């Protein structure tokens, strides 16, 4: 029979929620540990800042984490993260925690990202990341809206017509220009297809749409907006929310007039596939790793002195993945 003192010592080793498994120069924290959450938050903020088209993302799950301990006392964190698209456009100043997550019934967008971060003195910085962005649906849904390519002709016409209607009817004494198409969808209903469009707009130097040449203002000083338009036959509805200039919350301006996701005919905006400016090779090494996550017990009832061990099996939980925050 195993010595009770040895068992107690082992249980005490794994009982804490912040315990780590150390293998040579690697540390394997729990995916739900505070340090994993802190690293994941820095990764999310960085990737959102790089994403200049479409919508902000939020963290759904920390799937794995590994820490490389360096001889100089610094650390390299390798994380596998799952993000979900929110309904906040990247130019919406609202903080991510206040943004609604798009449900599966609306065709959600999921991004699986591998991220490498450096840590020194408690401060994280992103070294590299790679992401794979895919659609997530609730299964077959007859009669539900269906996403259309971002360069869909009918959808683009709805965007242009609704923007002209908005510019002619608002009271802001300024004309707005199209900045970014976020989503286009269609639904089969009586009387023809019902089209829906979501798109971002930017303030121009024109006061009315009748001016000849309207040039978008610099992103730092321009007002931005986000519009939701619907079209069914001759019926047209559009509602736009205008955001005040706030360069502290805006990402860098888009590199070009259109997102690559739009020009390539995708149905959603994709995160950057690979960002590794220093060619670190860390992401490839991590993705090919065959290491298995050790089993770590998260909660343990304190054993009583001189107690006889219960013969019933003890439920163990994996070190990773962490808890799911949304779905």
From TrEMBL:
Key word Cell membrane present: no
Keywords: Disulfide bond, Glycoprotein, Repeat, Secreted, Signal
This protein's record includes keyword Repeat: yes
Pfam annotation, one family: Cystatin
Gene3D superfamilies named among the record's database cross-references: 3.10.450.10
GO molecular function: cysteine-type endopeptidase inhibitor activity
Signal peptide: 1-19
Cystatin fetuin-A-type domain segment(s): 26-134
GO CC terms of this entry: blood microparticle; extracellular matrix
Entries under SUPFAM superfamilies matching the protein: Cystatin/monellin (SSF54403)
Record's subcellular location: Secreted
Domain of life of the source: Eukaryota
PANTHER family membership: ALPHA-2-HS-GLYCOPROTEIN, FETUIN
Protein name, UniProt field: Cystatin fetuin-A-type domain-containing protein
Species of the source: Pangasianodon hypophthalmus (Striped catfish)
